[in-house]
Fold:
Amino acid sequence: MATRVLRYLLGSSRWWSLVMLATLHLALLVGVQSLLAKSLLLTHLGLFLLWQPLWRGESNLSRGNAVFILASGIVPVIWLNWWMLAFWVSGLFALVGGRVLVYQSKWQRLHYQLTMVYLLAVLLFWITPHLFDLPSVGEATSDLMELALPLLLLGMALVPHEHEHVGKAQAVDFVYVIMLFMMLILLVLGSLVVMSQANLDYFGALLRTVFIMALLLFLLGWLWSPRMGFSGLQPLFSRYFLNIGTPFEEWLGQLAVTAQQEQGAASFMLRAMDQLAKLPWVTGLSWECEEGHGTLGVSSPHRIEMSDNDLRLTLFSRQSIAPSVLVHIHLLIQLLGHFYQAKRREQSLREMARLQAVYETGARLTHDLKNMLQSLLALTSIAEHQPDQAQPVLQQQLPVLTQRIELTLAKLKAPQLTADATTLTLARWWGNLRLRQQHRQIEWLSSGSPGQQLVPAALLDSVADNLIDNACNKLLREPDIRISVILRANPLSLSVCDSGSAIPDIVAEQLLRTVVASEDGLGVGLFQAARWAEQSGYHISLRENVDGAVCFELRQSDDVS
Structure:
């Protein structure tokens, strides 16, 4: 049972603070000239070290910290006076005030708020009167010191206890601590100035100083936010609070420039890590990601480990990192992680674009080869069954077929998504198409005579061959239908129509937009022809789709002259 009680007392900083305040109270009652007061203050200092929120209780102190603690213990013994006590109590008040904000429980906050009330009362009504040598005030406040404040300490001990939910031992807002310390010192010294200048007693000077400080705080609070066209003081102070003594904006600018200059994620990480290692407070770093790993600089006892998706980063600093600086570091790493992931996505998109180019070129060439083989089959059929007419047909079509084969071989060597630059006059292309398809039962119609305008021969050949092949395959299933090819020169349009059955609505909705399974193949040819036409400034559409009239039309887009 005794062991449990001892562990409970040792594990709660609340009891250390109560005993610390009790020893301080006894030392103040005894007086600074007594040897007992010096012994009590040494005990008070030891209890403060057990309670303090500045170092972790389980950590080893460095030599510098040990020397500082030793010097702090020697000073009360050699040089103890009311000035030193005034600064010490003011520092305790500021530390407690900076720590009270980290607690969520109302009882924990109440305990530390009562501690602040006790320290403020001791400073203003006992230490300051002795500091200014005001014996009359000291006599008036002796009852407070001997009765009221001990009862306050007893009441603090009776406050319900809860587990202290503090994330870290170093849970102190140092900016708030400094502000509280400066305000308390200003209150004490300001009371002295008002006493000497206005010839007031201590309590009157104290009240006037409190009123003046409250008025100044109200004025600062009113000026903090934008009012009546004034931008407010908050942006000015935020500029300095957000600055951690590093070239923050410069590093962000370098990171953005690096993201624009480097194409690959690996090279981007190398440059970004090199720039991060040049920050003044960084001694070294190491990182690991899917694109690689590396180490820069030297390690140190102060390290920060962070991760963002697959990026793992360890930073080494020259000194311990404060909580406010950790916020900025996490922001830096999050920005770095976002840029890194963007580079990875950009690299993946480039790879997908290359694969898409190879796929589309391969699919397009497959149908080009099919169309050329069909043309070659038609020429051999003419040579076999009509030997008298074969000679002029072969002389006209073999050069065209040879040119198409050369273009196909060039595409195989360098796959690309750009349109082919081969052009012919519309009249010559129309004649070649009719001559190449003359063995088929097709009705050829044209609106006027084709002119001498230049057209992309490879595109028109691919679209016309695909549409005619599909119509002829339909003719095998429906022998009585008629097939017609209609050319209009101005504006340029090519239509392939048949009098067969309509295409089902489900298929018609997806046709030309994606690959659609067909009765005669995989439905890739028409989809690829439509993609090629869009890239070249043309548009393929199912103009009419009813029983007895099914028409596909290739037309030049309106925004292309």
Remarks:
- The first strand starts at residue 282 and ends at 289.
- Residues 2-236 form one domain.
- The chain has three domains: 2-236, 248-353, 418-561.
